[in-house]
What we know:
CATH topology of the largest domain: Rossmann fold
Oligomer: single chain
Mean pLDDT: 84
Low-confidence stretches: 219-228, 296-315
Distance between the termini: 15 Å
CATH architecture of the largest domain: 3-Layer(aba) Sandwich
Strand order of the largest sheet: 3-2-1-4-5-7-6-8
Number of helices: 12
Bound molecules: S-adenosylmethionine
Amino acid sequence: MGRSSKDKRDIYYRLAKEEGWRARSAFKLLQMDQEFNLFTGVNRAVDLCAAPGSWSQVLSRKLRGREEKGDAEVKIVAVDLQAMAPLPGVTQIQGDITKISTAEEIIRHFEGQPADLVVCDGAPDVTGLHDVDEYIQAQLLLAALNITTHVLKRGGTFVAKIFRGKDVTLLYSQLKIFFSGVTCAKPRSSRNSSIEAFVVCQNYQPPEGYIPNMSNPLLDHSYDVDFNQLEGPNRVIVPFLACGDLSAYDSDRTYPLQLDDSKEYQYTPPTQLPIQPPYQQACHLRRNNLLSKEDAPSASNNNPDSEKTTPGWTS
Ligand SMILES: C[S@@+](CC[C@H](N)C(=O)[O-])C[C@H]1O[C@@H](n2cnc3c(N)ncnc32)[C@H](O)[C@@H]1O
């Protein structure tokens, strides 16, 4: 497969490189902004699970350099488990959003002033076991919600990735406790074939007397089954909104490399290569022919073909 084949298969991947975004996800936030005006009046924003940083790029480009506001008022804090290349006007924290220490560090950066907007595009490494993936995704969203309850101002907005799996009704009901407006949004750049969507939660209004606490057992499966299913009159239904101009590209379609007759296609390299990708060690081991030796030292000593038979190794 040539390096241009992904450009053909994934139009948003290609546009992201051409427009200088670090990831195609940038379009998801931009298309949600078209519907919800997410950045109006926002000076302080938190980007949870931010690497490689395309949402932080969107925040930086949209919030900074506005005529009516000085950049000194703008504060953007980005958090991820992974290291991220620097971005103008973005403070980075390398940390786990499920940890109280990360919440405390974010709060410290805001120096007592609450954030206007919290966004979270967090995704675990998917296992392919749908129930497990949905459960971990839900836990990540709830960790983001917990951090949000510590840092978001009353009336503020929270946007987070959600998997529309079987526990989604419970998640909606929990979000409705904190926000008067909860909408499920599906940007055109998010494939229809994916269960990924986003919750846009507006007007943060925590319940009377609510004290933020990172150990809240929000999606606790010790609740009885009926509570988790929230059926009948208890079922929470939130509005569903497709976001993005109808003329926007369809992320499930394959487009020709030459989109415009007057402009010849030219390959554009990625805007920012990952600085410490999780697959780095595997690449190093493979390049130096160390994989089979590490995994099966005795087999590799005796059998010159052992690399081909080492369990778990696929080239
Ligand atoms: C889909 S990527 C985010 C892409 C990003 N919004 C962008 O536009 O470039 C998901 C990120 O979630 C991060 N992540 C997953 N679990 C996390 C956790 N517990 N704490 C912090 N980050 C986490 C991953 O490291 C990964 O970088």
